[in-house]
Write a structure and sequence with these properties.
The chain has about 200 residues and is of the alpha/beta class. The chain contains 7 helices and 6 strands, in the order αβααβαβαβααββ. Helix content is about 35%, strand content about 15%. It is elongated and about 50 Å long.
């Protein structure tokens, strides 16, 4: 996490998990959440307790899959298919633990001819009332700087797809619901290496 942002600090305190929406599905996502966060009295929370963890792990941030727009991903889907599938996982997870924060899989494929803005818009049309974050990430360093410029302009496109909702922050100009964008940059540069998360606290 980037501890310089409020999202990063909160993640450090409460943790962030990703559920498998490539080769698994909504029910497995719900089961993992129940195991981790439910205090007890259910089959999976009691299984956690039998493993030596009496108290819930209280994991607050949950990613709905990872890089689902990438053809390199097992279980790769179209934006429409991912949006529908992730919506069912989101509903089950929020019913299981209403206090969690959900992160939708935003653009990660910025290849030539790829409609990465369209991916984000379509995903948000399905998930805008159920997620708090949209994760956009990419490789930087040895790639064309055009990708960096594209990522920097992503916010204005995805925020335009925000939904009206009474229980969310609102854009003071448009009145629409605000979603926070979590931008993940994978550094691919000699001498630096590694992976870093940048949470854009917008």
């Amino acid at each position: 996490p980037n501890f310089g942002t409020s999202a990063g600090r909160e993640e450090a305190l409460h943790g962030r998990f990703g559920v498998n929406l490539g080769t698994r599905g909504p029910d497995e996502a719900r089961h993992l959440l129940e195991y981790c966060n439910h205090p007890g009295g259910t089959a999976l929370s009691d299984l956690r307790r039998s493993h030596g963890y009496e108290n819930p792990h209280d994991i607050k941030f949950w990613c709905l899959g990872n890089e689902m727009d990438g053809p390199w991903q097992m279980g790769h889907r179209s934006a429409d298919d991912y949006g529908k599938f992730a919506l069912e996982a989101a509903k089950l997870m929020k019913w299981t633990d209403p206090g969690i924060k959900l992160i939708a899989a935003g653009s990660s494929n910025f290849g030539t001819g790829v409609d990465w803005v369209g991916w984000n818009r379509t995903v948000l049309e399905h998930l805008k009332r159920h997620v708090e974050y949209l994760a956009i990430h990419m490789y930087v360093g040895n790639r064309d700087t055009l990708h960096v410029r594209q990522s920097q302009h992503a916010r204005e496109h995805v925020f335009a797809a925000g939904a009206d909702s009474d229980d969310s922050e609102r854009d003071p100009l448009t009145g629409g619901r605000l979603l926070r964008i979590q931008a993940e940059f994978l550094v691919d540069r000699a001498g630096l290496g590694g992976e870093g998360l940048v949470g854009l606290d917008q």
